[in-house]
Specification:
Shape: rod-shaped
Helix content: 40-55%
CATH architecture: 2-Layer Sandwich
Radius of gyration: 27 Å
Low-confidence stretches: none
Mean pLDDT: 88
Structural class: alpha+beta
Number of helices: 1
Strand content: 35-45%
Oligomer: single chain
Distance between the termini: 97 Å
Length: 126
Amino acid sequence: MKQSGFTLLEMLLAMVVIAVVGITVSSAVGGVASQTFSLERRTMAHWVAQNQLHKLRISLRREAAVLPEGKDATRIYMGERNWQVRTEVTATDHPWVRRIEVQVFELQDGDEVGPFDTAVAFVGRY
């Protein structure tokens, strides 16, 4: 009399295949989650840098003057995160044009992590 069903060896082999597929899928999902977090953080840092540049441009429209040279650091809360924004304004060959470099760091437990974005712009007197 022949019984139908799986042998113990076939069951063990099926369990190994399922385990390998499960580990592969879970590591791929973890990688995607990590990439998504990194992309979201870099995108938010880019928005912070662009906001800083636009603030400087708007300030120039109010005052018909050239931006003063120098460095500045500002803390900003955006996207449920704290950001440290470093701005450096330097002179160019033209007396009315300034080079602005903005670096954006994330603040984690009081420490700067990054920079996650660096934006450079040239702004002249309006």
